[in-house]
Amino acid sequence: MKSKLFMLFLVLFVLTNSSYPQIEDTLNSDLYKWLKSLPDIEVTQIKSDRIFSEAYEIFVSQPIDHNNPDGPKFKQQIFLSHTDKEKPMVIELDGYAVNNRTTELSKILNCNQIMVEHRYFGESVPAPFDWKYLTIKQAADDHHRIIEMFKNYYTGKWITTGISKGGSCAIFHGYFYPDDADASVPYVGPLNLSIDDQRVYEWIKSVSTPECREKVFNFQKLCFEKRDELYPIFLENADLKNLKYEIVGIEKAYEYAVLEYSFAYWQWGNGDCSNIPDKNSSIEEIWEHFLANGGVTYFDDESIESNYPFFYQCYTEFGYYAYEVDQFKDYIKYADGQTPFFIPKDSNPTYDPVLLKKINDWASNESKNFVFIYGGNDPWTSPGVCLTGKTNSLKMVLPNGSHASRIKGFSKNDKDLIYSRLENWLGIQIER
After folding, report:
1. What's this model's pTM, rounded to 2 decimal places?
2. pLDDT at residue 26 above 90?
């Protein structure tokens, strides 16, 4: 018996480890030698997913200000996963800090991929630190420079992509550098046109069914009505998880967490509202649902501070959303619906929507070879791209889809439509 178990373990060990290329195997690869020959980059080999033959963590030296390329530099983190230099390259323009993972498109296309961390996030923070260089154009210049660099090695087609803010970045990059990529697939990328984009409110008022919308609203009202019972649990949760609410103020944070619920629920929900507690539910059931679906961990100090670069961009170029408070005026004591507490204290942003409006117009009327993916329930779909039919680009909205909507969630016919467009633009055959 023991020998059988040992043999089984041995087989599993061999199979598991043989699925992943060993780092030593790629020390002498052409790609590794080419990477090591490049100036101003740092390369570290890492284990790769089984669909790739080699993978690297790379830090690229980038100008803090691309208008002054000889000025101060910062190191931008990227991850390269390789299969074949002649196959397509998917480059994910992430909007935040990044961890290496295998993208949906890389699996679909069986190709190479690069994951790019956004400037001012994660390991890619410039020093000296100056907020004024955190702009849409500077980030697009980062991405353009990386693409230009790796096109010296990879000879196949290029596809830009990104998720959420990263999806927006893929659109921004296409606006400034339309010739960099042969196709682009932004996922759930919004184009907000104001700090308080009204389209979000209208979306929440019309999403799903009247019955579900009423359940969502009634739950918010319930959280206000039961404040005396829920707020002490809110405080206990803060102590248990060491959450601080000094930036917003803890009582105000509770109100904003309730206000955030409707946006968060539709952003991540699947359209099934049957699990929303009501007035007949226990306080424990109400709290657990609120904790899982509301903004309890959105307004604490650590969450806000870690997202300062995002919020700075919201208050300069990206735009954002506020909260409607009139319907809860009988319950609210502190919140006014606006979010100035998200602004970094060492910054003084000035909002200018001109560039976003230009990009929105371009995306709607001129973008070519784009597949825009959105979720049917996701509030971020409300400020999404609205195609006018003047280009060959495609907009796909997943019914009942959330912010996690991906190509794999679509029907066979819809997937075939997406695949056929990509096949046409990339000159490849996608395995169905």
Report:
1. 0.93
2. no
